[in-house]
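Q: I have 136 residues here and want to know how they pack in 3D. Can you give me a structure?
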Amino acid sequence: MPSYKPFQPEAYRPRMSPFWYLDRWPYFQFIVRETSAFFVVYFTVIMLMQICAIETGVGAYAKFQAFMACPVVMVLNVIALASISFHAVTWFILVPRVFVRHVMGNVLPDFLISVPNFGAWLVASAVVAAFVLGIF
């Protein structure tokens, strides 16, 4: 156990504002990206509710559709979509910074790591849109 002398000075602890993330754009981006996890959970719960309503029957699914048509829910869905899109874009841009990108001793450029992620997102979105629009 360490021995302390009387009147030992305290460790230096700089004061930090509770709004430290507003000082710089990258900090704010980080907080918004982390906060968007709430909307991921929200979409997951909505999808589970939809699956449950489909499984229960036509009447339950009609009630679910009426709930989803409520203006408050529609606005919340638009906010959630924007938040999750921001989360995905910033994550795809962040991937080259955390991904080991050495191939045969050469460092790959950032865009060679990010572009396939955006491409996969685009293809997945096109497939979902094709199913929703009845093309498939």
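Q: Anything worth noting?
A: The CA atoms of residues 56 and 96 lie 44 Å apart. Strands lie at 102-103, 106-107.
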